[in-house]
Specification:
The complex is a heterodimer.
Chain A: E1 3-5, E2 10-14, E3 19-21, E4 24-26, E5 33-38, E6 44-50, E7 56-58, E8 64-68, E9 73-78, E10 87-94, E11 104-106, E12 110-115
Parallel strand pairs in A: 2-12
Antiparallel strand pairs in A: 1-4, 3-9, 5-6, 5-10, 7-8, 8-9, 10-11, 10-12
Chain B: E1 4-7, E2 10-13, E3 19-25, E4 31-37, E5 44-50, E6 53-56, E7 64-67, E8 73-78, E9 87-94, E10 105-106, E11 110-114
Parallel strand pairs in B: 2-11
Antiparallel strand pairs in B: 1-3, 3-8, 4-5, 4-9, 5-6, 7-8, 9-10, 9-11
Classes of the chains: A mainly beta, B mainly beta.
């Protein structure tokens, strides 16, 4: 069965330190992977995606993610966290059985808290 | 700026009183989605339109309906809201071609309260 796992409900990091938000996936074919961020009472904002190509994907606001096929992971990273990065982060994978539409399967979300 | 707009941002309705939520987009995307999101959980897909074709998720209650009168607009109708329908409702759009994956663009959401 297809799935996305975000093993940490919350990640705490001090401002200026590097951050990692973990995501692992399970699909039978080649994964299409996405990261979204959600601020309180807002919709989701697209950060980055991996479809094919370079395993290191760069996205918005200084975020990047590394696709690791052997570990079936797609961890989100940032070299230096900002307090304003505090938000809810969702990893998602394209539903392989969604037909022509690219429906997403979301992880449960990870709350990132950056302390000043 | 091209965007996804949802109105209203906050909606209060009474138990059992029909309510309609609105979504419009200026992106000219051919696919529009409606999600339900409860208290910081993952968004749950209710249904989507691929062009004019309506696609319901298997576990979406009959209480939820949708209309897409044209490319730009999509509505979510809740025929008889229950207390359990209180949630954030998110509209999203994407430009899809088979075999090519594009990200979804989300609106700011409508927070529905049922009294």
């Amino acid at each position: 069965a297809q799935s996305v796992a975000q093993p940490e409900d919350q990640v705490n990091v001090a401002e200026g330190n590097p951050l990692t938000v973990k995501c692992t996936y399970s699909v039978s074919g080649n994964p299409y992977l996405f990261w979204y961020v959600q601020y309180p009472n807002r919709g989701l904002q697209f950060l980055l995606k991996y479809i094919t190509g370079d395993n290191l994907v760069k996205g918005s606001y200084g975020f990047e993610a590394e696709f690791n096929k052997s570990q079936t992971s797609f961890h989100l990273k940032k070299p230096s966290a900002l307090v304003s990065d505090s938000a809810l982060y969702f990893c998602a994978v394209r539903d392989e059985y969604g037909g022509a539409t690219n429906k997403l399967i979301f992880g449960t979300g990870t709350l990132l808290a950056v302390q000043p | 700026d091209a965007m996804v707009i949802q109105n209203p941002r906050y909606q209060v309705t009474q138990f059992g009183k029909p309510v309609t939520l609105s979504c419009s987009q200026t992106l000219n995307h051919n696919v529009m989605y409606w999600y339900q999101q409860k208290s910081s959980q993952a968004p749950k897909l209710l249904f989507h339109y691929y062009d004019k074709d309506f696609n319901n998720e298997a576990d979406t209650p009959d209480n939820f309906q949708s209309r897409r009168p044209n490319t730009s607009f999509c509505f979510l109708d809740i025929r008889s809201p229950g207390l359990g329908d209180a949630a954030m409702y998110l509209c999203a759009t994407s430009r899809e071609r088979q075999g090519v994956s594009y990200e979804q663009y989300f609106g700011p959401g409508t927070r529905l309260t049922v009294t």
